[in-house]
Amino acid sequence: MLSFKITTVGASAGLILTKEAMAHLKVKKGDTLYLTEAPDRSYRLTPYNPEFERQMGLAEGIMHEDREILRALAR
Fold first, then answer.
1. So what's the pLDDT on residue 56?
2. Cβ proximity of 47 and 34 under 8 Å
3. What is the pTM of this model?
4. Is residue 34 within 8 Å of 48, Cβ to Cβ?
């Protein structure tokens, strides 16, 4: 289990990530993390943008369904 310490950063609060936590999340200083709520009402801290992932899923579906149209437009 990984734990994080909440500290003051200017007028805000921030999390202190250990080297082990950063390695586990595969992030480095300056990266953005996203806190998302899971269906079971728990929370996940992830370096992956869930909205971007959703949009890419939609785009992949469109590209698959309309591949012939896209192929013709690419000519």
1. 79
2. yes
3. 0.55
4. yes
- Whole-angstrom distance, CA of residue 56 vs CA of residue 42: 24
Residues 32 and 45 sit within 8 Å (Cβ to Cβ): no
How far is the C-alpha of 58 from the C-alpha of 12, rounded, in Å? Answer: 35
Structure tokens at 3: 């734990």
CA–CA gap between residue 53 and residue 63 (Å, rounded) = 15
Q: 39-63, pLDDT tens digit by residue?
A: 899 988 888 777 777 787 888 888 8
Q: Where in the chain are the domains?
A: 1-27, 32-75
**Measured distance CA(15)–CA(7) in Å, rounded:** 6
